[in-house]
Structures are given as C-alpha cells and as structure tokens.
Amino acid sequence: MDCTLNKVVNLYKPAGPTSFDMVCKVKRILGVKKAGHIGTLDPDAEGMLPICLNRSTRIIPFLTAQLKVYEAQMTLGSATDTQDSTGKTIAEGSVEGISREQVLQVLNEFRGPQNQVPPMFSAKKKNGIPLYKLARNGITIERKAVPIHIHSIEMIGMEDNRVDFVVQCSSGTYIRTLCHDMGERLGCYAHMSRLVRTEVGIFNRDTSLTLENLQAAVDDGSISSKLFSQEEALQFLPAIQIKSDHAAAVGNGKALTRQSIESIAHPVETGQHYRVSDDAGLTLAVVESAITEEEYARLEPNEIAFKLKRVLM
C-alpha cells in the first residue's frame, strides 16, 4: 500500500492489548512489513500510541523524546507491588484527614525537575533482562534514579480516596511511580488506578484513529489523508534548508559543511537537533549541532557545521 510508505499512524490504544499487539494489528491492516511505536503504554493504559511505518521508524528516537500529557487517577490508601491497580497490595494506610488542600500541596511539590526511581515492574533492563521478569520471580534489585521533569500537574477532581489529575512530563516518566511517591509524601500510600495518554508531541486525540477507524479508512480509500508524513511528524524540530547540489551528499551520509547550507530557521545551539530539507520541502535527515551560533559564524565554508544523526531518504 504505497500511500502508507514512511508515514505515521496516530493510533488510539484501548485498555487491554499490549503496545506490541497494536503494532502487529496495524501492520496487518496496512500491509506493511516494518513498524514501531513511540513510547510504550502498559496493557491497562489507553491513549495515544503513534506508530511509525517502514522508513519512518528511523525518526522514532526523536519523537520519543517529546513531551507527553496524561490524564491519571490515583487511589489513596494502598500501595501495590506494580504501583498500579493490577498488582498485589503491599501496604495500606488511612486516608482519614487527608484533605483536598493537602493533595494539591503535594501535587505542587512534585512539579519541576527531579529524579525518579523506575519501578521493578517495568521494561527497564538489568544485564539484558527486563526488570519485570525479575520482579515476577520475587527478585528486587536496586535501580538508579533517572532525571525527569514534571512540567505541569493539575488536579481535575477528588472524590473519596480517588484523585484525578492531568500531567505534562518528559519522556521516561512513570506516572504510576509518581502516584506511588505522592502517596508516600501524603503518608497514606497510593497507587495508579487509571491512565490515559492524551498527547505525544503533536499527536493528540483530535487526530487519533482506532483500529476500527484505520480499517474503515483502508476500505474507503481515505487512508492517505489520515496518516502523518515524516515532515509533519518532525515539524517541532527547527529546519535547515540544504543547497540543491548538496542534497545527494546528505543522502549518502555526508556531514553538513557551512557551504552546503542555504538557510537555518533557528539559532545554532550546541546539542540541538535540526531537520534537513531540500528546496522541495522533503526531509532528508536529522542532524545535531556540536557548536554555538558564534562558532558557526566563524566557520570556514568547508568546515563541518552539523553532525549527521539519521538519514531519512
């Protein structure tokens, strides 16, 4: 199916199947051989699960790093071994006297940059073995804390011992661990009882497709208009336009020299990723700057300005 080549499906995953299950179903519906998802959703979670097709799987690392938004429910009064409602209760506490104001205060305390210890029941690996496999065998190991950032966290509502909130966070944040940690801060224990991912970068509910929507679009011939191109998926990256006579060299894996660049739509920053486009607007590659704006201005024409991270042609 030519119209699906190198595009992205903004899939809505229901609660139940694994993220891998959803990828397999999309491959069958669209008839593609290669596909990969952006960010894993646990089986009980639902929401945005963008799936890259064929060559667009090359942009997964850049899309995975985008901010994510979740709607979650935290149940106060008990902690579980999985930190969500699927696990066994390992501790219980009284919620008597826990006020809305106290919960709001704790939510506020968890806003900003911080370190988070990944849960044992996770896909993180130790010596090549997923932690959840160790956990299922009753093995608990020490995990290194990972830097994360909670950009915003707001309460939606609170009823009895259930707290609904929305959070915008960096990639790699475990919302069930956030619930667990907030429960400890409140002194009553807590676990996550519901999770919906509502945004992954530009992908949101307004443009999402269920598997049924996807199949219907294939059947009625509208599928091409329902998918995202690589250009659309990478629009959050600042653009570099390459000179037409240097486009082929980029496709062959050559780094960008100053003389190969027609224009840059963003100041040069060390460590910043850029999408490289030709004069027709086709995205050729993703590059990274290892220099500053001042250093770029002093470069000789044949000196390398940007390191190639991924060729997309």
UniProtKB/TrEMBL annotation:
Pseudouridine synthase II N-terminal domain segment(s): 27-175
EC number(s) stated in the UniProt entry for this protein: 5.4.99.25
Coiled-coil regions listed: none
Active site, UniProt feature: 42
Keywords, ordered alphabetically: Isomerase, tRNA processing
Catalytic activity field: uridine(55) in tRNA = pseudouridine(55) in tRNA
Domain tRNA pseudouridylate synthase B C-terminal, residue spans: 176-219
GO terms of biological process kind: mRNA pseudouridine synthesis; tRNA pseudouridine synthesis
Function (record text): Responsible for synthesis of pseudouridine from uracil-55 in the psi GC loop of transfer RNAs.
Protein name: tRNA pseudouridine synthase B
Organism of origin: Candidatus Nitrohelix vancouverensis
